[in-house]
Amino acid sequence: MSSPLTTAQLDTLREQGFVVARDFVPDAQRDGLLALARAQLDQAVAPVEYEADLAYPGAPASRQAEGGGTVRRLLDAYARDPLFAAWATDAAVAASLHRYFGQGAVLSRAHHNCVMTKHPRFGSLTGWHRDIRYWSFDREDLVSTWLALGEETAHNGGLWLVPGSHTMTLAADRFDAAQFLREDLPDNAALIATAVSPELAPGDVLFFHCRTLHAAGRNQSDRVKFSVVHTYHAVDTHPVPGTRSAGKPEVPLDSP
User: What pLDDT does residue 1 have?
Assistant: First the structure.
């Protein structure tokens, strides 16, 4: 049984914009999720997102190019299998978020809600951004969980994050048209220089705020990296009607 985040961890999440919960997921549950993810990746079980479709730096030029069949994400993890649904609604996650929000939490199925797969050679890098850039909610206070199903380091494409960036007000011209932070600007370069890349062991969970600046490099190892990612908000936060954020039914978590 997993234990919820401690008071100290919740304080770190609020102050830093992210926190790592070590050994958050029991080995048997983690191993079951990894085996399922591998099997579904091998069969490219729909719905999936391909690297070539996003055209991020390092991705294959098209579906027809070498590596064009490389999957980036297994989408809608919650609906894929009861094992994924159980993790998405895990009691320790629910208790942690209840304490963070001060009220019940809700799983968004419209954002993240996926198995992230980062492949050697054809896995792309992701520039500096805030997740809220393409989300539409009446409050910008959402938290995501990033479950490492294997080791995650800077070498195999692990996340980099800028501490405290979730509270920063950054002018619009510091971002490009796609809302990625412009790395050519001196002020942005200085900000990026403060980033850290926490190493995650299998079963560790990174909790991070939707406004925290983060990025990820390419996978320079010889193995696919698997992570399960979900996003949550408080019950009094709502997606804007008619937007992508309101595109799938949400799942209230059981209150502790």
Answer: 64
Q: What is the CA radius of gyration of the chain?
A: 17
Q: Which two tokens stand for residue 249?
A: 């039914």
How far is it, in rounded angstroms, from Cα 53 to Cα 88? 26
Please give the sequence-ordered ranges of beta strands (E in DSSP) within 36-132, or none if there are none. Answer: 48-50, 71-75, 105-108, 114-118, 126-129
Which of 222, 256, 239, 234 is closest to 106 using CA atoms? 234
Per-residue confidence (pLDDT) for residue 252, from 0 to 100: 98
Q: List, for residues 78-102, the tens digit of each pLDDT value.
A: 999 999 999 999 999 999 999 999 9
* Distance, CA of 55 to CA of 32 (rounded, Å): 31
Place of tokens 């920063």: 168
Q: Which residue, chain included where needed, has tokens 């719905």?
A: 47
Q: Kindly give, in sequence order, each residue whose CB lies less than 8 Å from that of residue 137, ignoring residues fewer than 6 positions away.
A: 233, 237, 238, 239, 240, 245
Other C-beta atoms within 10 Å of 58: how many?
16
- Residue 195 neighbours by CB under 8 Å, 6+ apart: 160, 161, 162, 163, 213, 215
- CA nearest neighbour of 209 among 18, 9, 1: 18
225 backbone dihedrals φ, ψ, rounded to 5°: -100, 135
The whole-angstrom separation of Cα 188 and Cα 205 is 28
Domains plus CATH for the chain?
Answer: 7-252 (2.60.120.620)
pTM: 0.96
